[in-house]
Amino acid sequence: MLTTTDFLFELHRRGAKRITCVTFRKNRSTIWSLTRDGRVLNVHDAYRGASPALLDAFATVAIEGEVGSSAAKKAATVISAWPELADEIRRLRNAHDTRRREADEHGMTHCCATPEQRSYLHAVYGYFNHTRFDGTLPTDISIRLSRRMRSALGHMMPGERTDGSRYVVEIALNCDLMLSGNGAERADTLLHEMAHVADWMQSGELGHGASWKAWARHAGCQPTRLHERPVRYRRNRRHPVSRVPPLPDAIHEL
Ligand SMILES: [Zn+2]
């Protein structure tokens, strides 16, 4: 496997001296691109395993800086036709589709929060971001309430832009968490999802692995999955939940 330094070295050895930086990007669409006036080569993460022949092809397009000549066109075809790239892109797309589908199954398609509930959730999120995550989480996050979640209490939906940078599509919480008597679980679930936000944004990790557990401990929520929690549910699932819990005094003092 090549590092970005190895990759750059191989390009220079092949005469592509203009390139000053190589980046590997993990995404579902971009195969390669030249940016910063052709000085930066961004390539799909799969090319860490590039063969000498592929490196020749990258050097050809990098030297030319565009795909104009027939040599560069041929090189670009060699690059994009690499079977391992297709496998990797297919794998990333499947993972993305699975996440979407799981989100749908968890009843994550629409929000039933009232404007008052939404501002409550944003206030608590902002408070926890400040007091438990050192203010490192994104501030403009979308937080939804779902009334279709059954046993699921929360969900964090990760997003990835075509340039490989990460963001958070949303946090969704089961609307039953807004009921009276669920205060402890409401706070714990929000912190649990915020730990997923931190883990995704900083490490690109999903799930409940070591890096997530470290965030959960840092934030002070239970470092376990959200199953079998003692939560009160509304009696009739068709009834909306409009309750807005009182904000803790500490939030007003911030
Ligand atoms: Zn989780």
Structural key phrases:
3-stranded mixed beta sheet, 44% helix, 6 strands, 8 helices, 254 residues, Zincin-like, binds zinc ion, 2 domains, alpha/beta
Can you put this structure into words, describing what you see?
It contains 8 helices and 6 strands, in the order αβββααααβββααα. The chain has 254 residues and is of the alpha/beta class. It has a 3-stranded mixed sheet, with helices on one face. β2 and β3 form a beta hairpin. α1 packs across α2. The structure holds zinc ion. Zinc ion binds next to α6.
Gist of the model:
The protein is of the alpha/beta class. The chain is 44% helix and 13% strand. The chain is built from eight helices and six strands.
Overall geometric form: elongated
Give the termini separation. 49 Å
Fraction in beta strands: 5-15%
Give the H and E element order: HEEEHHHHEEEHHH
CATH superfamily of the largest domain: Metalloproteases ("zincins"), catalytic domain
Please provide the count of β strands: 6
CATH class of the largest domain: Alpha Beta
Structural class: alpha/beta
CATH architecture of the largest domain: 2-Layer Sandwich
- Per DSSP, the total helix count is 8
Tell me which ligands are bound: zinc ion
User: Averaged pLDDT, please?
Assistant: 89
Residue windows where pLDDT falls under 50 for at least 5 positions: none
CATH topology value of the largest domain: Zincin-like
